[in-house]
Write a structure and sequence with these properties.
Arc Repressor Mutant, subunit A; alpha+beta
Length: 124
């Protein structure tokens, strides 16, 4: 197989391969986006890695259209907020659209309700 130019891979091709692989996955098991990239670009890591962003973008579009569900740690994740490792599965016929949990604030982030006691503040 000749190397594929990742810049020339159309969104339609990504969509077709992604949906086909998800449909062929046994028992609706989620697929990895890198498997989609390898199916399109072959085994050359430098080539298939360049497809990861376009695959993520197309998976997010499909999730917003209700065709697939994006999963992180086994739970549905908002397509606009996907970060890190995720998987893709087809949305079952009649399955309601997922309800996404509100993002959790970082541990280092302080909410407006947190009181700060700074050095030298004796008024507290």
């Amino acid at each position: 197989m000749t190397d594929v130019d990742p810049r020339r891979v159309k969104a339609g091709r990504i969509r077709d391969v992604l949906l086909l692989m998800a449909a062929e996955s046994p028992s609706g098991k989620p697929i990895n986006p890198d498997a989609v990239a390898r199916a399109i670009a072959g085994k050359n890591e430098k080539v298939w890695r360049r497809l990861m962003k376009p695959i993520k973008d197309e998976a997010a579009r499909l999730a917003k259209d209700g065709k697939v569900v994006l999963l992180r740690k086994g739970k549905p994740v908002d397509p606009d907020g996907v970060r890190g490792l995720y998987r893709i599965r087809l949305r079952a016929e009649g399955e309601p659209m997922p309800v996404y949990e509100a993002p959790k604030p970082d541990d280092d982030f302080l909410s407006d309700d947190d009181d700060l006691l700074l050095e030298g503040d004796d008024d507290a």
